[in-house]
Amino acid sequence: MMKLGGDINNTDKLLECLMKAGYTGDIGQIRSTLDSAYVELSNKVKEQDRHAKSVLRVNGVPHFLFHSNQKGVKPVGISGAQPPDVSTNYTHFIN
To answer: Among 5, 14, 26, 89, which one is most buried in terms of CB atoms within 10 A?
Structure first.
């Protein structure tokens, strides 16, 4: 019986699982595809992170962004854990 578990974010572990499952295709091609997808997705995440920090001014998690229905009112963001009464102060943005 095959042992279950392991980090499938690790390319070697994922390829090992493929081979144990009976995959007989080109492992080199699969590795190349996984490596290039990792680089592409990693770059995309880094760009989204830069955007969140610089444009949306996200500097903690969780982060809540309140948009107003009123024209000309800029969104307000709250970062980090906050007591419940903090978010109720911004309910006028969603009414």
So the answer is: 14
Instruction: Tell me the per-residue pLDDT of 48-87, one tens digit each, with 9 for 90 and over.
Output: 999 988 988 888 888 888 877 778 878 888 888 888 888 7
Domain ranges of the chain: 8-55, 58-95
Q: What's the Cα-to-Cα distance from 58 to each of 63, 65, 71, 93, rounded to whole Å?
A: 7, 9, 23, 18
**Model-level pTM greater than 0.85?**
no
Are residues 40 and 28 in contact, defined by beta-carbon separation less than 8 angstroms? no
Q: Report yes or no: 62 and 81 within 8 Å, Cβ to Cβ.
A: yes
